[in-house]
Specification:
With 248 residues, this protein is of the alpha+beta class. It is built from nine helices and six strands; from the N terminus they run H-H-H-H-E-H-H-E-E-E-E-E-H-H-H. The longest helix has 31 residues, at 217-247. The termini are close together. Bound molecules: 2-acetamido-2-deoxy-beta-D-glucopyranose (4 copies). One 2-acetamido-2-deoxy-beta-D-glucopyranose binds next to helix 4. One 2-acetamido-2-deoxy-beta-D-glucopyranose (NAG) binds next to loops. InterPro entries: FAS1_dom_sf (IPR036378), FAS1_domain (IPR000782), FLA_A (IPR045003).
Length: 248
């Protein structure tokens, strides 16, 4: 009896090990090299999950990749950290319309390559991908002092914390604040009657960001479920086999 239990236990352990090994192997996919992929660079840098998600929903990430591949002007991107996004008043991003979300991300992108030293000689206001830099629209000013670079929008001021990536084509800088354009974040007019309704419907828009909106979770869940069904089947089989052996 003890012997049978022991052998079915070791068989179960063996099956467990094989399953774990199989899962581990499917999890590691070879990284393809090719054109510059800003998402991949941000993923590698860590602490930019909100920006990555926003770049995905608004498709600005794809626009940046395409533009980098198809022109030699280069690009400059200010990347606010997850911490910077969480310092915004809660619900700020979700209360923006889909178009405003696109503009917000584009406001962090300049249509040419600017190195840290070149910031000292740029003329204000800078033009961003969000459009018109005239007062009230999307002006962005840069001020420098030695190696320090500050960015001001007329709503808030951010400091460039460090260079995440630079290759002469793409310059990616970490900033400590979300750059808030005047056009979207200028002091709002007093609330009128229809305002709450608009806000509510916007919150329900498919572009709304929530931690659960990532489709990345589903494949893992599915394979997890499959695995547990398979494991269950194996356990039943093992018990069946050991009972059979026991009765022989
Ligand atoms: C860029 O990288 C991300 C994350 O690594 C990946 O999901 C995406 O498919 C890549 N895009 C291209 C065009 O290779
Ligand atoms: C990059 O540009 C080349 C040549 O212009 C083009 O053939 C290729 O499809 C582009 N790749 C991407 C991912 O846009
Ligand atoms: C940049 O901003 C920081 C913090 O607000 C401030 O202490 C510093 O003097 C600013 N530097 C420049 C060059 O504007
Ligand atoms: C940006 O710079 C321009 C030109 O120097 C100036 O007129 C404008 O007031 C500045 N705006 C902000 C928000 O600093």
């Amino acid at each position: 009896m003890k012997h049978h239990i022991f052998s079915s236990l070791s068989l179960l352990l063996l099956i467990l090990q094989i399953s774990t090994l199989a899962q581990a192997q499917t999890a590691i996919a070879p990284a393809p090299s090719g054109p510059t992929n800003i998402t991949k660079i941000l993923e590698k840098a860590g602490q930019f999950t909100t920006l990555i998600r926003l770049m995905k929903v608004t498709q600005v990430g794809d626009q940046i990749n395409t533009q980098l591949n198809n022109s030699n002007q280069g690009m400059t991107v200010f990347a606010p950290t997850d911490n910077a996004f969480s310092n915004l008043k809660s619900g700020t991003i979700n209360s923006l319309s889909a178009q405003q979300q696109v503009q917000l991300v584009q406001f962090h992108v300049l249509p040419n390559f600017i190195s840290m030293t070149q910031f000292q000689t740029v003329s204000n206001p800078l033009r961003t991908q969000a459009g018109d830099a005239s007062p009230g629209d999307f002006p962005l000013n840069v001020t420098t002092s030695g190696n320090q670079v500050n960015v001001s929008t007329g709503v808030d001021d951010a400091t460039v914390a460090n260079t995440i990536y630079t290759d002469g084509q793409l310059a990616l800088y970490q900033v400590d604040k979300v750059l808030q354009p005047l056009s979207i974040f200028a002091a709002p007019a007093p609330a009128t009657a229809p305002a709450p309704a608009t806000l509510k419907s916007k919150r329900k828009s498919p572009a709304a960001l929530s931690p659960s909106s990532g489709s990345d979770d589903s494949p893992a869940d599915a394979s997890g479920a499959e695995l547990s069904i398979a494991m269950h089947g194996m356990t039943v089989l093992v018990i069946g086999v050991s009972l059979f052996v026991f009765w022989l």
